[in-house]
Specification:
By secondary structure, the chain is of the alpha/beta class. 40% of the residues lie in helices and 17% in strands. The chain contains six helices and five strands, in the order βαβαβαβαβαα. It has helices spanning 18-28, 50-60, 76-83, 95-111, 131-139, 150-156; strands at 6-11, 33-38, 67-71, 87-91, 116-120. A three-stranded parallel beta sheet has the order 1-2-3, covered by helices on one side. Strands 4-5 form a two-stranded parallel sheet. The longest helix has 17 residues, at 95-111. The protein starts with 5 loop residues before the first strand and ends with a helix.
């Protein structure tokens, strides 16, 4: 365990999936504190408001005592500097994720040389799972059981 370090797991989490929760749980075993930092991504059309996503993640991660869920806006590198934490957690499901995440890790390090990105691979049950797929399944009336935490499933089908 990294005894003194807090790590940040950023994302839009729209909606939070069991894959996200798997990464949060794995990270919580490695670091004394995990900050799940929820933001609005201007390039995405969100299903849920920022406040609802934060509330869903708080409920889904309630059993993890070292996890804090917050919202932030603006540049991630600036947020990390503001809270004096420079470790990012990112999940990798497939090779296509790696290409994007690799570029983001390098850009973040370009913005602040102290930023380090730790990549975690989710359980194989979630390697196919994305928020976009969950939104489409829910919009078309499909079952989302097993794809998202129960609190999210209830909200999706309202």
């Amino acid at each position: 365990m990294f005894k003194e370090l807090a790590a940040v797991y950023p994302g839009s989490f729209d909606p939070p999936t069991n894959g996200h929760l798997d990464i949060i749980t794995r990270a919580s075993k490695l670091f004394p504190k995990i900050i799940v930092a929820v933001t609005d991504n201007a390039s995405k059309q969100h299903m849920f408001s920022l406040d609802v996503r934060v509330a869903l993640l708080k409920e889904a991660s309630a059993g993890l005592s070292n996890v804090e869920v917050v919202s932030f806006s603006g540049l991630l590198a600036n947020y990390l500097e503001k809270i004096n934490t420079f470790i990012l957690i990112r999940g990798l499901r497939a090779l296509s994720d790696f290409e994007y995440e690799f570029q983001m890790a390098l850009m973040n390090r370009n913005l602040n040389k102290n930023i380090e990105t730790i990549f975690l691979i989710p359980d194989q049950d979630y390697t196919f799972l994305s928020s976009s797929m969950v939104k489409e399944i829910a919009a078309l009336g499909g079952k989302t059981t097993g794809l998202v935490p129960e609190c999210v499933e209830k909200k999706l089908h309202k």
